[in-house]
Write a structure and sequence with these properties.
DNA polymerase, domain 1, 9 helices, magnesium ion binding, metal-binding
Length: 224
């Protein structure tokens, strides 16, 4: 049975690519580390790091500079920590200007109409990011990634996103920009809203090309 718009009581948000774009900041942080190691930075390297873990990213940068054998494990951990410090410094420079187009208006509308909101981000830095965007009070309920045993596409983070709101998953819309995230929302039994490429996010119940087109009115039209 397809959920109707009138049944929706809550929204469970991913953070990156939905509310703001921190991938740029991760790129800057890795770029700074590469510079400090004397590894030349290029678009191929930048694109190769997307969506892979911190340690795997570090290995890619070291290989690109033929330095994969120059550091022991302990030194590599220290370099990865240095990258995270760079990243936190980038996050600390964020302002509400970093909110993606239309998202602030959408959140204001949701709040005004009494919808409940929770955040389902795997990033441990998510609370700090929300703080800098001045959106922390929009998300009193945040799923703590430290308590998760499985990452997306496993539904766990979205299941918890509904639980913290005391809502049935069928009463929630999950908002994502990645295929693995859409898979997680669907497996949790929530309505999936994908933002981005319609082909890539074909599994979503509804897809919007960009954040600016995500409005309650447009969602109501698609859900009926």
């Amino acid at each position: 049975m397809m959920t109707k718009f009138a049944d929706i009581k809550g929204f469970v948000f991913d953070l990156d690519g939905v509310i703001t774009d921190t991938s740029v900041l991760h790129g800057n942080a890795w770029h700074q580390l590469a510079d400090s190691l004397g590894v030349s930075w290029n678009d191929d390297l930048a694109n190769g790091l997307k969506g892979i873990s911190r340690m795997d990213s570090l290995e890619m940068i070291l290989k690109a500079g033929h330095k994969e054998n120059d550091y022991n494990q302990e030194q590599k951990v220290a370099l990865a920590t240095q990258k995270n410090d760079n990243y936190v410094a980038e996050v600390n420079k964020m302002t509400p200007a970093n909110i993606l187009p239309g998202m602030k208006a959408f959140l204001d509308d949701l709040r005004a109409k009494g919808y409940q909101l929770s955040l389902a981000s795997a990033s441990k830095n998510a609370p700090r990011v929300l703080d800098k965007l001045q959106l922390a009070d929009y998300f009193p309920k945040v799923v703590d990634p430290a308590n998760l045993t499985h990452g997306k596409p496993d539904p766990e983070i979205y299941t918890k996103g509904a639980q913290v709101l005391n809502l049935d998953p069928a009463q929630c819309i999950g908002v994502e920009d990645a295929a693995a995230g859409v898979q997680a929302i669907n497996a949790a039994g929530e309505v999936s809203l994908g933002i981005g490429d319609a082909h890539e996010l074909a599994a979503a119940d509804m897809v919007f090309a960009d954040t600016a087109s995500v409005t309650l009115e447009n969602i109501a039209k698609k859900l009926g």
